[in-house]
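re: ur question from yesterday

yeah so i grabbed the chain u mentioned. its 443 aa long if i counted rite. heres the sequnce exactly as i have it in my notes:
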Amino acid sequence: MAGGEQSWVIETEKRLKDLDPSLELELWSKHSIYRLPACIKDLNSKAYRPQIVSFGPFHHGETQLRPMEEHKHRALLHFLRRAKKPLEEFVIGMEEVVGQLQDAYENLDEDWRVHKDRFLQLMIVDGCFMMEVMRVANGGQSDYASNDPIFSTHGILYTVSYIKRDMLMIENQLPLLVLDKLNAVETGKFKDEDHINKMVLRFLAASPIAARTSIGGLGLHPLDVFRKSMLQGQYPSSRHGHSEPASNEIIRSALELYEAGIRFKKSKSNSLRDIRFRHGVLHLPVIVVDDATEFLFLNLMAFERLHVGAGNEVTSYVFFMDNIIDSAKDVSLLNSNGIIQNAVGSDKAVAKLFNGLSKDVALDPESSLDDVHRMVNAYCRKPWNMWRANLIHTYFRSPWAFLSLAAAIFLLVMTILQTIYTVIPYYQGQSPPPSPPTAPSPQ
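ran it thru and got these structure tokens back, copy pasting raw so excuse formatting
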């Protein structure tokens, strides 16, 4: 055996002896911020790339994001002046959790681990910038110049939407532990764990109700908190329980469901868990589809795919919507029922968006919406509903087919009436009217 091969064998044998599954379990449980594998990123790289600001180490220093670094350091100065505490106190507070912060990033470059001071600087600067942007945008008192390019009313108006989008990129996350530590040192007193969560949601949430949502415990990062706010509540209890195997059936499109007698109504909440089917009515949460919807769902699904234990609720919802939306007509039907609020333009564009979201994404066979799939398909298989759907599909899709059907029915009715008119006198005991007498023929 060659020397190189022998060295490899010895090294492998040594690693085998040191192998400890419990240590592996502990290692994987620490990660919450991930680099995307090429099989995900290459499908739509733009959806995962921050546009104007980086948070954390994965995109730090990229050319298109460097202009914001100046504003980050300026935000740090304003934060320190308002806190009236030296920077050293914040550094000491952050040092207490530096190991946790480093472990939060999967495949963190070794340079960030070796140069701990540089990593701490990154966490504090990015954390202070995030805190300042959220504070000003949420209506906090501002000590920035009225013409500040970022923190003025004008700056917030034109930059906040891009910052929100970048805060929801899976590779561009900052552990909320950073904000919690900064807040604790700044105020010098303990606040409930949900304080940071609510501050993030007030900034990111589309509705005041979502912003008041209680997550329970400090979130991992902004994307995690936002995802949890979309999934408040429990799935409706199922009469089937979990004894039945997962269904492999694909649910029909919204238009086909409508033809089978199913009606659509808005759910009582906007939670993606609030999807119910009862007595022929499918309840779905309202969703606003805009320019950020595609990027948001792709990053949420990527987080569910990479973070073990996160669940599959968002992915299940996207698959469900992809199934019931095949064309612009399905979007139009859902829009007419107030379920989809279209802010991107044409119904065709919305259909294309949902049809592209679930591309090359694996769905858990024990999907959280499996019971809804099962009940909807069972309803559609009932003989009357199948006959009704077939009738509508065959005769009511085209006006000419409908006119032909109406003409055929009219002729059938007229034929029946004519037959009845002829037969009724016999059942009433009447004989046909006598024929008029004929004149005698001449002899």
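noticed a couple things. The beta strands are 263-266, 276-278, 281-284, 287-289, 340-342. also The radius of gyration is 33 Å.
anyway ttyl
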